[in-house]
Amino acid sequence: MHVTSLSVVLLIGAGWFIRTLRNLENVEPGYQRKKLVLVRDRLARVPGVRGVAYSENALSAARSPRTKVSVEGYKSQKPRDLNARFDQAGPNSW
Question: What are phi and psi of 84, to 5 degrees?
Fold first, then answer.
């Protein structure tokens, strides 16, 4: 009985995960995917290139650097609550 219940819970969780992935395909990321190229080079000098932007961590938030944040008067129960992630990105931000 317990194995069956666990299997049902896992199947429901897998279904939610698949639905989330499908929903993420329709999220507008704020840039045109069809015109995006990920490389490490000096593209601004290439003839025909109209604009270049830089992102230290590409599109992966998993690799973004962290820094500690302190808020006066706030005491966190979990140290990870005081971590902030950031990325340096922007047009012509070489």
Answer: -125, 135
